[in-house]
Amino acid sequence: MRSVLSLALLLTSNLALATGEVHEYQLDNGLKLIVKPDHRAPVMVSQIWYKVGSSYEHGGITGVSHVLEHMMFKGTKNLAPGEFSRIIAEHGGRENAFTSRDYTAYFQSMERSRLPVSFELEADRMRNLLLQPEEVAKETRVVMEERRLRTEDNPQALTYEQFNATAFLNSPYRIPVIGWMNDLENLRLEDLQVWYQKWYAPNNATLVVVGDVQPEAVHALAQQYFGPLEPSPNLAPPKPRPEIPQRGTRRIEVKAPAELPFLIMGYKVPVLLTAGEEWEAYALEVLAGVLDGGNSARLSRSLVRGSQVAAEAGAGYSLYGRQQSLLTLSGTPSPGQDIAALEQALREQIRLLREQPVSAGELERVKAQVVAANVYEQDSAFYQAMKIGTLETVGLDWRVLDDYVPRIRAVTAEQVQAVARKYLHDDSLTVGVLDPQPMDPNARPAMPMGGGHGH
Amino acid sequence: MDIKGNRPIFWLFLALVTLLSACTTPQSRDWSTLAAHTTEVSTDIEHWTTANGVRVFYVRAPELPMVDVRVVFDAGSARDGEQPGIALLTNALLDQGAGERDADAIAEGLEGQGAQMGSGAERDMAWLTLRSLTDPALLDPALDLFGQVLTQPRFAPADVERERQRMLVGLQYKEQRPGDVAERAFFRALYGDHPYASPKDGTPESVRNLRAADLRAFYERYYVARNTVIAVVGDVDRARAERLVDQLTAGLVPGEPARALPAVADLEAPITERVRVSASQSHVLMGAPGTSRTDPDYFTLYVGNHVLGGSGLVSRISEEVREKRGLSYSAYSYFLPMARRGPFQLGLQTRNEQVEEALQVLRDTLVKFREEGPTQAELIAAKRNITGGFPLRIDSNRKIVEYIAMIGFYGLPLDYLDRFNERVEAVTVEQVREAFQRRVDPERMVTVVVGGAG
Fold first, then answer.
1. Nearest CA in chain B to A3
2. pTM surpassing 0.95?
3. Known catalytic residue: A24?
4. A83 at the B interface (CB within 8 A)?
């Protein structure tokens, strides 16, 4: 197995040369530009990343980052509402935008010669957005529909939202990206105005271009279109607001119309930026892989196929964030099983990780998948750009991406056990349970959930 | 970064909140909308047939040391017959035990090489996919396992029982999603007694009655060489591709191709169905039988629909429903071309109180478009978007392997990609108007509304 891995690693490092080096530039106004040539197809993706997202928000204006993202398509001093999208479309482009906890990003995928179109339009709306009352009112209604679609009428999402707000008491990670409904209902044009003025500036943005392009030419284009933009003089990073230490297990129950119960558990864990020792974050990545890195991983093998306590089970962790985060476990019980049995089974998995080192075979499988995935990712220019943008925007250098494979490969079974012992304990655990209520509005309320889930 | 497969469902809604819904057009159908180049890009598809009758489609892509294999069978849920769900469950069982190996051993073997396997089924087809590095030390064992999954599935009763239970849970999951409830009702109403009416994941009653012997019989009938298309894209030369295909499929018996599906009848009268659930929004789906893959009107309707509701925010439906009135996050229309006439569908979701208003806007937009057709300017813009964006459609191995599998499955000409552009460019305003008037009748449509009280 070892020889196989090093072979594959050799391939990956050759590949880095074949797809071109990453080039980094900084304009005088503070805009950072990162270009990664990929000449496989005559296309490019251009993404602009702003350091702002729901974790920059506070009570009363939650969701403002995301509503502003929508408003960025609704006109500037130079363009009518919707004009941005029409121009991109006429150039054969595909566009979208996304908001997360730590970032707001906009992208256009286009044939390579259309890069100036993308730059011209993005530079314009970085500084010239026109927030018009009627457009704000309409678009906020659209976002409320989006919230109904994603969250209000989606019992698992609703459970997750409340679970998350329970796990984090003071950290801004408790804020749902789409915002609380009442905050959306009361969002004012001035809130958007302030947010735009505060965060949309070249010295708070990273421009990432991946595709069939020449770095120097992209740099010159960026100078031409973004260079003249004024930086924000008073740009201050958000206050730290770290989560206070958790002192004991927290539990919530969410009643919502649903057919199936759902369980989600989360342990407070560090991310790469907050880990005392960097290896801890990589060990947590491997730990999550041991639990849920494919069909051979423990949750599928032991819970879905073995004891069959779960119809579905998963684990989640991401090491690239601004703040302390969660390692989550979630699942749906099999017919005839209940939430209590599922929770017990998931806790048993945590106990095993704390008490026994993972096997050599498991560790090798996780690593083999990481090495291969590193090649597969290069099949998507978009994904490559997305990774660079994410790292830069959360405050990590994109070069950290190059560390990923070697750092994962260096993780030992002892380190996986050490992070399990250090972080996966009851006092830092939050548990959320979806208690299904009738979908049919005429039905009588459901019987209380199967016994024994209360603790 | 992403080493965890099997992401829990909730993870999807944590990560990102977006401007545009990702499902404005149905997923994995994107390849229906191929347009040819403004920039010169070509895909040299090589085609051959194996000794036992598997049709092979291959593109060499030497840039990355990896290979994608997509095996497609005419074994989708349109073949369910009296046993709704059997196509999907049969497909789900393939990697749950094959040859000497159980599910654990198969997963360990593949994942230990860094290989990724996938599977699934829709109405027309069922498929298995493999992605692997091309280093022989990794690829050979992965192919060996993948070949066993393909040709020697076990259908052990215990595995069948477990996956059957999970499928029942999957059905319950869909029942709690108003959009999924609407989709099922829409297909049922649209297709009546045609095989496309059958829900691909079955019904609780039908799934409860599926047995291992049924699945084996389904497998033996439909997972046969002459009912199979295989697509290969990656860093393997032709000789290696031929060996690879033989290694995977030599164990398939020749068998018989599946019989042609019956034609889809027009709706005789409008059908309206309202389903009341506890929800803050109502989901609206409207539509009628649309086009087949080989329909002579396909390009005309596709380009026309790009103006009507197929191009995200700049389409008329989005303009009327979302941009002008703020009624819905996602509002769209599409033609889903299938072996027989797939659906022409329009959709939106809006808060219960305003569903009648939204439905009226949707209908009016369709009626007006049908009467007047697109403007010249709209048509030109649509063509520019389709043809100008052509290179994006084949810019990765993953996309290319899906395209060529589709071309092979539906028997489209090998120059389909090269000629797409000229066929899009040839469409005129008059043709769009004429085709919509002849093919779309707003007085005879299915309308499904699933949601709460207004």
1. B137
2. no
3. no
4. no
Q: What percent of chain B has pLDDT over 70?
A: 92
The reply to whether A335 touches chain B by the CB within 8 Å rule is yes
Task: Identify the band that residue B22 occupies on the pLDDT scale cut at 50, 70 and 90.
Answer: low
B436: which 2 tokens? 């919509």
CB contact under 8 A, B176 and A258: yes
* Residue type, position B348, single letter: L
Residue range B271-451, CATH number: 3.30.830.10
What's the CATH code, domain B45-249? 3.30.830.10
**Which pLDDT score, from 0 to 100, does residue B41 have?**
61
- Fold: same for B45-249 and B271-451: yes
Catalytic residue of the set A21, A24, A57, A69: A69
- Indicate if the alpha-carbon torsion angle A372, A375, A379, A385 is positive or negative: positive
Q: Where are the domains of chain B?
A: 1-42, 45-249, 271-451
- Return the HEC string of chain A: CHHHHHHHHHHHHHHHHHCCCCEEEECCCCCEEEEEECCCCCEEEEEEEECCCHHHCCCCCCCHHHHHHHHCCCCECCCCCCHHHHHHHHCCCEEEEEECCCCEEEEEEEEHHHHHHHHHHHHHHHHCECCCHHHHHHHHHHHHHHHHHHHHCCHHHHHHHHHHHHHCCCCHHHCCCCCCHHHHHCCCHHHHHHHHHHHCCHHHEEEEEEECCCHHHHHHHHHHHHCCCCCCCCCCCCCCCCCCCCCCCEEEEEEEECCCCEEEEEEEECCCCCCCCHHHHHHHHHHHHHHHCCCCCHHHHHHHHHCCCEEEEEEECCCCCCCCEEEEEEEEECCCCCHHHHHHHHHHHHHHHHHCCCCHHHHHHHHHHHHHHHHHHHHCHHHHHHHHHHHHHHCCCCCHHHHHHHHHHHCCHHHHHHHHHHHCCHHHEEEEEEEEECCCCCCCCCCCCCCCCCC
Q: Does the beta carbon of B173 lie under 8 angstroms from any beta carbon of chain A? A: yes
Residues of B in contact with A4 (CB under 8 A): 113, 135, 137-138
Mean pLDDT of B396-422: 95
